[in-house]
């Protein structure tokens, strides 16, 4: 007969995973900082995630837009925030990958944030105002060449994916245009529809509604292949030899301050896995022409690091450098 001592009973309890360490849960409200204006994919992702986390944890979850400086302002706020799981950044390819090489000086670096889980990824789409006399990308390039430096293109901010997509496009095609940065994709799209700018490389995930409504004309997507939501719109690299290597996908996801304890990051990652599995989220990504970017902590970190390296090479090759702010 085995004698059960107080010590052995305690050891048995501690060996039980559910009792050894309880799942982290927030005891106060959560905030998600979006480093861009309302209306873009980052904002859409955050406002889709916030009510789920609120329901999941039973704590208020608010979205705060902190736009400006290509995402640097909002990112910096979370870098400085308490690493307690209550301060989340809905980051993106701009400040979390491109900006790390594009800007000469930043108040943070690649080690300042811990990647938790992605939300969505998708291509950018070249959209033009209906007044632009071009129905194909080669026709548009010819129009740009006939009017060097006269057309303007918008973006959600300097250093964001649509900006660098436009820079790469102009370099590859030997065209010139005036870049006009806005404080988010939403404001840029408003100006495009109004005819105050002539074109932009918009995130397909946020620009699809304007295309479907006929307010802008789509000429190409930036990804290597066509997108399932716009099967008749070619990939840019299909259309011209100069664009044979053209391949850009933008992406979004949650980050927390680097010092956040791993159990907190793991708990948030598990909550986001459940969120991704809901029919509401699956349907929204399909509607937006995006693809789920969920992965484990390690998978998401590897993805982000790969993007940092990719864009670092592109930016160094082109000799692009800007001052932050």
UniProtKB/TrEMBL annotation:
Domain of life (superkingdom): Bacteria
Protein name: Tripartite tricarboxylate transporter substrate binding protein
InterPro entries: BUG (IPR005064), Bug_dom1 (IPR042100)
Signal peptide: 1-22
Keywords in alphabetical order: Signal
Family to which the UniProt record says this protein belongs: Belongs to the UPF0065 (bug) family.
One Pfam family here: TctC
Record-linked Gene3D superfamilies: Bordetella uptake gene, domain 1, Periplasmic binding protein-like II
Statement: the UniProt record of this protein carries the keyword Ribosomal protein: no
Natural source organism: Belnapia arida
Keyword Iron in record: no
